[in-house]
Amino acid sequence: SSELTQDPSVSVALGQTVRITCQGDSLRSYYASWYQQKPGQAPVLVIYGKNKRPSGIPDRFSGSSSGNTASLTITGAQAEDEADYYCHSRDSSGNHLVFGGGTKLTVL
Amino acid sequence: QVQLQESGPGLVKPSETLSLTCTVSSGSISSYYWSWIRQPPGKGLEWIGYIYYSGSTNYNPSLKSRVTISVDTSKIRFSLRLSSVTAADTAVYYCARTSREWATIAGYYYYMDLWGKGTTVTVSS
Description:
Chain A is an all-beta fold and about 110 residues long. Chain A has strands spanning about 5, 10, 20-25, 35, 45, 60-65, 70-75, 85-90, 95-100, 105. Chain B is globular, with a radius of gyration of 14 Å.
């Protein structure tokens, strides 16, 4: 099991807001980054640092953190947001990197 | 525009060594970390390790005894070797450019801002 824990699946109605969470002790000390992966494609970075979006990522994606939990929020989810989402950070020792188990987002 | 491309054998026999290369096109390998990540069929992402352009490395503890990552700055590519493979090493292998930034309240953090398309490696006799 991963040091970063994610819910296996989450669903959201089209146009509504959804929060995907990632829990882990290391998140008290280090920022998480978030990746979107659609079937058959490579992951794409959507959020990194405190709440930074790479060029080309819609502003409906945002990130936040509190205690041992990092969150990815999609405000006004679109059909094209249906994908797997992975969090990533340093592990509890701080010496290595680790991914969360991933969350499958379904847009209804 | 910088692009990453993985290459290497798609089929490796059990107990042999898996070797992959990631070529960085239209860019520099300097000032970045370069990671390998894999994804077994139907499963999540697993970080294998990274190399800094200067040559320093960091490996996933669970794979450390079998992994070697090297860099060839002159040819702008980096490589992965994974020894003594088993069926459990069957996966899509990705290379990714990895950045490290400093945050005053959170120390250094890493993120992978550019990924290759991935290459499928099957371990089978």
